[in-house]
Amino acid sequence: MIQTVLKRDGRVVGYNEEKIKAAIRKAMLTTPMGEDEALIHRIVDRISTTGDEQMSVESIQDRVELELMKSPRKEVAKRYIAYRDQRSIARRAKTRDIFLEIIEAKNNDITRENANMNTDSPAGMMMKFASETTKPFVDDYLLTQEARQAVRDGYLHIHDKDYYPTKSLTCVQHPLDNILKHGFMAGHGESRPARRIETASVIACISLETAQNEMHGGQAIPAFDFYLAPFVRSSFIEEVKKIEALSGEDLSDLYNIELKDYVKKPLDRLTGKERSLQHAMNCTVSRVHQAMEAFIHNMNTIHSRGGNQVVFSSINYGTDTSAEGRCVIRELLESTYEGVGNGATAIFPIQIWKKKRGVNYEEGDPNYDLYHQACKVTARRFFPNFVNLDATYNVHENWRADDPERYKWEIATMGCRTRVFENRYGEKTSIGRGNLSFSTINIVRLGIECMAIKDQQERIDTFFKKLDNVMEITARQLHDRFEFQKTALAKQFPLLMTRLWTGADKLSKDDTIESVINQGTLGIGFIGLAECLVALTGKHHGESDEAQQLGLRIVSHMRSRVNEFCETYHHNYSVLATPAEGLSGKFTTKDRKSFGIIPGVTDKVYYTNSNHVPVYYHCSPRHKAKVEGPYHELTRGGHIFYVEIDGDATHNPQAIADIVDLMDKNNIGYCSVNHNRNRCMECGYEDAQDSLSVCPHCGSTHIDKLQRITGYLVGTTDRWNSAKLAELKDRVVHK
């Protein structure tokens, strides 16, 4: 006897014979003889009593067809079969419509989910077809009923759900020194160890590109200056040997000569070894500059993910005080300032300056001059962003200024905002680790559901009960995904699981990755703190101290629960201030359908990212820093503080330094600065107008309006979804 029914989406529900009766009756009513209630009852009774304890919807419908064909009412069977076919077509219609929109290259929220992806290209279309067909498979076969329901009801979003069946991980901080020293195998190609700066920069590109094809998230290098510095010296020695070959002079004493810096100087009036030394230095600087130019050019032109997306890459630097490290930093900054092509701003890699007292932040620090150069470059090119190594939660107890490998104990970010540092199951470091997967909670919906409760204490208490429930579902969902990911074989990720991930060198190709991936993190994100607070208190945290205290209480509670999950499931759970790009409008659309338009809550087509003050709220940078700063310590899965400034920042690099000072004063972990930058694609003219449609120099209307979408730059807004475009329109200057 049938007890339960397995539905098409994987849910198991109780058996209801009335649904079968209704379907047969509907088919009978379309025939001349009409309905036959006695026959309906006989067929349903026979199916109910002879069926298995649990049957699928399709199996039950097959039985109905068979019974109707055996009955005198064969015309009903034909109508029933036609009805099934129509329902099947209807179920496929949604997928068909999505596919047609992809084929026709329509600019909508489906095709513009990721602004870094060109879904108009054949490879991009193919990726999108795969994405849209994979997501239902995940829903039906890989999610539990509670997780699936939480997603369906708009409480939870599973990021990169289309990559779920591949068992891939999100991102990783590359231990580039491992590859540069030992080389690596990738597919049919083999890379030998690097010997000179040009080769080292190319291998860095290859490492990032190759790993991007093995993972679904970003790729980062945590200590770009330290990793490339040795190859500046080896290239310098090559230049000295060239002079030796030409002059016949023994200059071997210059090979390892102590240098304070690599600076180009004219050779006039220099003689002997002094001239040879300076000439070798000049040639070395030129080579480093060209290598940095090539690195930036490659990272903006080479593609990954089937050839439809520029590698989402980040590099961290700024703390190597050696002459060679300083040379790498200086030439990288100069190349970035010059731009790519005919002067365009490089979109990738996202560059992050590692700010550190005693190293590069205060006057008298060894790299203080390079810090000011970094501010100048940011004022024109948006990068580098700034990560604060002096933030209390970013300080490592092993860090020492005299340690040549101190970079191991320095925090590095993925650029978009993802942070990996603390580690319950291994060494505390960013290197060779990354995020495994993350999911985001719609805390706005939880707040809306509590709005009708008049008693404030009861309203807040109810909210926290709801939050606890969804957090538990999220933690279990991430654990389940981890359990699925860990069954992957090392050979599925030939670079990641040989040279990059911590502990991967101990794996053979047919081993599972189970023993090493717990070094990574599982992120529980949140979106819309501002709107959630408006729902609960009437105001957001930027305009109310009461709301701010509740906001800190909410995120602190999430942090406490995450710590509990670490103990329960034995993973590195963390709270993530979600960089919601494709997600920014999805939750809002669903909540509008359920609750209507609520002022200050659902009246925009987007929710505010994580713990940010709303983009439309007028306030000073100082106030914004004071409000958002405390959340950074709580969101150790990743966070960002950004400021919108007006005017032409190229003439005011001090404005950038002032923002970094705010980071230092407010214990902020990571920040970026947004400002206007327009560029004529025909003649290269640049200005900082709010709106430029015609170039005043050549009259061209082909204007590149550079914008930052979440944590990264996008040279055009053509690939932005409607929610992010609406958010962009609402952004106000902080002054």
Q: What would you say this structure looks like, in words?
A:
- The protein has 735 residues and is an alpha/beta fold.
- The chain folds into 3 domains: 4-92, no CATH class; 172-342 and 355-381 and 392-409, Anaerobic Ribonucleotide-triphosphate Reductase Large Chain (Alpha-Beta Barrel); 435-730, Anaerobic Ribonucleotide-triphosphate Reductase Large Chain.
- It is built from 21 helices and 23 strands.
- The chain has a 7-stranded mixed beta sheet with strand order 5-8-11-12-13-18-17. Strands 4-14-15-16 form a 4-stranded mixed beta sheet. The chain has a 3-stranded mixed beta sheet with strand order 2-1-3.
- A hairpin with a 4-residue loop joins strand 22 (707-708) and strand 23.
- Helix 1 (17-28) packs antiparallel against helix 2 and helix 4 (74-103) packs across helix 5 (122-141).
- The longest helix is centred in the N-terminal third of the chain and has 30 residues, at 74-103.
- It is elongated and about 115 Å long.
- The mean pLDDT is 90.
